[in-house]
Amino acid sequence: MRVVMNRQQLQQALKIASAVVPSRTVKPILQFAKVVPADNVLIATNTEQTVEVALMADGKHREPFLVPVERLLKIVSEHSCESIEIEHRGENLDITLGRSEFHLQTASVDDFPLTTTSDAQPAAVVHAGKLQEYLGYCVKAVDRQSTRYALGGVFFNMAAGALHLVATDSRRLVLCKPDCMSQADGPLGVIPLEALQVVLSSSYEHHVEISADGNTATFTMGDYLTLSTQLVSGRFPDYNKVVPASPNHLIVKPDELIPALRQVQIMTSEESRGVDLGQSEAVLQLAAKSSDVGTAKAEVAVASSVGELISIRVDAKYMLEACQPFKGLESLAINYSDGDHAITFSSAEQPDVLVVLMPLSKE
Asked: What is the DSSP letter of 31?
């Protein structure tokens, strides 16, 4: 029995599935995805995350079958024809793309893990583009090494009908508040990086429904994609207590600060990552020094300032990432107290993004 699918659509579905399918596993069956022609869907899972991606399948073959995700993705990526034909015979797949033919081994569909979808009502509805933009900022602050598992993902929290996306590795914190249609209140949980990569790789352009049910969260993108994921265990810290009330602040143009930071960052190293921030009247001074590299200085005009002059050392890489959400805006506010307490980055033009950064010791 043969099924015909659009090659580009299958390629996109396999790319999404590859974000879930493990490259190495003691369960080889997880390296396959299940194609269900009767439901026009492709399903992939690693038992912790499951994706269901829409397909358009034509043909008399209505029984589900398995396809090797990575191998088939390589095959369809090397062709430009419009359609792909797949004939399933037992544990063999005969694949035709234009004038090319491939014969692949598959596995029994009966060995594929059972998957279910949640019936929980959406707790939040967010535009896909804005969700992806803000998750892009948050994932940089996720702790990839800590044994505190709750820091190994992005915390989704509903606060008085507003969705808060929070990530921290104890050295910096990113808080984003995308526009959200919801009246829910309370935490949805910490979403692991593997699941967030699926959301980030999606080409969906409409609204995403987010729901939580026990230890599972579900992202629904219309009829195109459904992602179910187990939540990261552990208690996420109270991020509201991390945001300091800083008495001093200065205003600069982010598009002047970012290139200046990049310039002085050239003279940093793994052993000396710090950039010193100083101030002389209406000028923000940036300086970096490394014994095995050299020194660098740059200056940025300060539009306005309040309180004591800044004198703080920061990690150059982290500060660059802290400035990125404000790129293209007219103003960036840097709030600070002294060299021992957290600095915040915000903008009146982008009020739904806040970045908190811990300074480096000058000793």
From this structure: G
Q: Of 279, 297, 299, whose CA–CA distance to 287 is shortest?
A: 297
Contacts of 41 (CB under 8 A, 6+ apart): 35, 52, 53, 54, 55
User: Lowest-pLDDT range, 18-27, 81-90, 179-188, 250-259?
Assistant: 179-188
C-alpha 17/C-alpha 55 separation (Å) is 13
Q: Which of 180, 194, 171, 169 is nearest to 134 (CA)?
A: 180
Burial of 129 (0-12, 13-18, 19+ CB in 10 A): middle
How far is 276 from 267, CA to CA, in rounded Å? 12
Q: Is 333 helix (H, G, I), strand (E, B) or coil?
A: strand
pLDDT in tens, 24-59: 888 999 999 999 988 899 999 999 999 999 998 776
**The Cα angle at residue 177 between residues 315 and 258, in degrees rounded to 5:** 30
- Give the separation between CA 64 and CA 38, rounded to whole angstroms: 8
- Please write the tens of the pLDDT for every residue from 287-331: 998 877 789 999 999 999 999 999 999 999 999 999 999 999 999
Q: 71 in helix, strand or coil?
A: helix
State the average pLDDT for the chain: 91
Identify the residue with better confidence: 336 or 361: 336
Q: What is the pLDDT of residues 244-264, one digit of tens each?
A: 888 899 999 999 999 999 999
Residue 117 neighbours by CB under 8 Å, 6+ apart: 52, 218, 226, 228
Closest among 61, 15, 22, 60 to 42, alpha carbons compared: 15
| Integer Cα distance of 282 and 209 in angstroms | 47
Residue entry with tokens 């390589």: 74
Contact (CB, 8 A) for 55 and 69: no
Task: Report phi then psi at 362, rounded to 5.
Answer: -85, -5
Output the CA angle 139-145-150, nearest 5 degrees: 65
> Alpha carbon of 93 to those of 3, 5, 69, 198: distances in Å?
11, 14, 13, 27
